[in-house]
Amino acid sequence: MNPAVQAPFPATRFRRARQSPGIRALAQENTLSVGDLIWPVFVREGDGVAREEVPSMPGVHRLTVDAVAEAAREAADLGIPAICLFPYTPMDKRTSDCAEAWNPENLSNRATRAIKRAVPEMAVMTDVALDPYNIDGHDGFVVDGEIINDETVEALVRQTLSQAEAGADMIGPSDMMDGRIGAMRNALEAAGHRNVMILSYAAKYASAFYGPFRDAVGATGALKGDKKTYQMNPGNSDEALRLVARDLSEGADMVMVKPGMPYLDICRRVKDSFGVPTFAYQVSGEYAMIRAAALNGWIDGERAMAESLLGFKRAGCDGILTYFAPAMARALA
Ligand code: PBG
C-alpha cells in the first residue's frame, strides 16, 4: 500500500490545540470574568470598622456596617458588580414572629443603605427568608412543628418591601415557600419598585453544604430539625425545571441553582431549557472544602478556586455567588 494515502495515525491530534499558552487561550470556549461574580457578605452589629473571622470559613469575616461599606468600595475597585448581604442577627432579636425581618433599621437594611451611600454603583442583593430572625432557625413560621407556607409568604412580602425601601437592587428569596415570587412581584409593583429585580433561589436543595453558613449567621444551634419539607430532594432534577418555570411565570427576572458544584447538571438543564439569566451559588461548604484542603497543603487553593468557578461557566451559568469573589477578582486582575 502507498504510505502517502494511508490514513494518518492518530487521525486527529487534539494536542495541536494545546501546544502553547497562546494557542490554548485561542481555543478556549469558556472564560470567567470579574463581572460574573456576586460576593456574599456577612454583617454583624458593632461600632466602627471591625471584622471577625467565621471559624468554619477561613478568610471569610462578619463585618460591621461601616466595614461593609468599606469592603464594598474595595470590591467595586476590583470590578465586582454585586454584593449579597446576610445578617448575623443578635440572639435577642430572634423571635417566633420574626418581626426583625422587616424592621427598617435591621442589620441588612442598614448595610444596604451604607453600601448605596458609599458606592452607589454597587448592586445590592438581599436575602429573603426568615431564618436569621427566627427563634427556630427555619426559613418560615413554625406552628406545631410544621413550617406553614401562606402565612410565611405574607411575612416574606413585608421583608421584601423593607429591603426594597432600603435600596436593594435585587431581592433573593431563599426560603423555598410556594407562591412567594408572585406575591413579592405584585407587592413591589404596587409600591412603585418597578426596577427592583427578583433573583429567585428557584432550585435550592436541602444540602449538607450549608453547614458553615449556619455557623456564620448563628443559626446552627437554633435550627430544630431539618429543611427537607421546603428545600429540594437532592435526588431530583425534573422538579428543578418545574420550579424554574413556575418562578419565571410568577415574575422572577433571574434564577439560581444552589448549591453549585454538586448540581452543575441542574445549571446546564436550566440554561438549556429556559435561556434565562442563570446563577449558581457556590455555598459555604463548597468554599470551606476548598479552603480547608488548601490550608492543609493538599491542593493548590488558587487553582482549585479558579477551576471550580470556571466550571460554572462551562455548565451554562451567567454568574456565580461565591465567597471567593474578592480573591478571584484579584487573581483575574
Ligand atoms: C437560608 C439561606 C441559607 C443559605 C443562604 N440562605 C442556608 C439554609 O438554607 O439553611 C446558604 C448559603 C451558604 O451555605 O453559603 N435562607
TrEMBL record:
GO terms for biological process: protoporphyrinogen IX biosynthetic process. The active site is at K204, K258. Homooctamer. PROSITE patterns: D_ALA_DEHYDRATASE. It comes from the Bacteria. One of its GO terms (cellular component) is cytosol. It catalyses: 2 5-aminolevulinate = porphobilinogen + 2 H2O + H(+). This is Delta-aminolevulinic acid dehydratase. Its EC number is 4.2.1.24. Keywords: Heme biosynthesis, Lyase, Porphyrin biosynthesis. One of its GO terms (molecular function) is zinc ion binding. InterPro entries: ALAD (IPR001731), ALAD_AS (IPR030656), Aldolase_TIM (IPR013785). Pfam families: ALAD (PF00490). Belongs to the ALAD family. Pathway: Porphyrin-containing compound metabolism; protoporphyrin-IX biosynthesis; coproporphyrinogen-III from 5-aminolevulinate: step 1/4. PANTHER family: DELTA-AMINOLEVULINIC ACID DEHYDRATASE.
